[in-house]
Amino acid sequence: MQRPRPHSLIAAGRRPMLEVSLGNHHLCVPVQLDLLYLQFHARPNSDYLRMWLLSGRCYSRARLDGKTAVVTGANCGIGKSTALDFVRRGARVVLACRDVKKAKEAADDIRRQTKSSEGAGVVEVVELDLASLASVRQCAQYLLDTQTHIHILVNNAGVCYCPKLVTEDGFDMHMGVNHLGHFLLTCLLLPRIIRSGPARIVNVASINNYVAKAICFDDLHWEKRRYNNFASYSESKLANVLFSAELSRRLKGTGVNTYSLHPGIVVTEAARHVSTTWFPGSQWIFENVLVYLFKTCEQGAQTSIHCAVCEETAHESGLYYRMKRGDSWRIPREPSSVRAQTILSS
Question: Do 107 and 74 touch, CB atoms closer than 8 A?
């Protein structure tokens, strides 16, 4: 299969331009290469154009026959696209979700989409509310009782930019759901994952982890500091990266690899709180305007898929991944373990 190539980039003084050819018409759009690449795509027999972030893709043809994967938050968005890909590769996939009704609907949709796919796997659902440690324990016990092996765990679920809320156990919602819930789930499943090796644990973080210079352990749940939803989210994403790096160190030699990643900017249901925390109408703008600028859920899932199945990542662990933009269509790796050691020792 020939890989798609981005449109040509031409230098225009100090402002690089994105040159787009549409029939006999040519359009040059100024871009800032280190922040945003835009690609226009004209669909055949269509009277509109769609614009989205230029996205790489996982081209691995690795099969997952006989493998079991658990994906949290897989009833929609990036998680559902990740689960769909795994099922197409032949895996048994467990959708671990808070909303069981939506999860069952997602499972039915995945079955419909893979019905005609040769060698497709199976999909099932289990309830998981990451805002409740009791629910996390119940989910983990169910998985241990029903799954003899767990080869892939994708900690995908999360919330972002929500107002000041606390979990059932009194934790800041961002830290509780995005990190602590997944931390407990991973630890409870770890003996089974190790026994299933080679295995992989994928933690979906965010580029926001760079915004948080450190984690305030003296006020982890924003009881003393003035609450800032952006900073709270960023700290939880940094926790994902640090957890992945430290877990890799502790699992060295077990056959279990860990990965953290930035999926790109994707409009998903995780941004459902922005109209409350940013300004009224923010969510509408996200879903009806910015959706044409950001990645689709399928595009956003590519980095998770790359980490979970790609042959070249089979011998890598504890690193941070993001989809590279440009001609190479590759995902560069960054030594998050070095940053982890710096932060934890400060």
Answer: no
CA atoms of 188 and 72, how far apart (whole Å): 15
The amino acid sitting at 260 is S
CA distance 282 to 279: 6
| pTM for this predicted structure | 0.77
Cβ neighbours of residue 298 under 8 Å, at least 6 residues apart? Answer: 81
Most distant CA atoms of the chain, gap in Å: 63
69: phi > 0 → left, psi -120 to 50 → alpha, else beta; which? Answer: beta
37-93 pLDDT per residue, tens: 333 333 333 322 333 444 577 889 999 999 999 999 999 999 999 999 999 999 999
Report the alpha-carbon distance of residue 39 to residue 51 in Å, rounded.
6
Known catalytic residues are 233
Entry field: residues in the chain: 346
pLDDT tens track for 128-177 = 999 999 999 999 999 999 999 999 999 999 998 888 999 999 999 999 99
Tell me whether strands 256-262 and 319-322 are parallel, antiparallel or unpaired. Answer: parallel
Record the tokens describing residue 123, joined without a space: 């999909």
Spatial distance between the Cα atoms of 83 and 75, rounded to a whole number of angstroms: 9
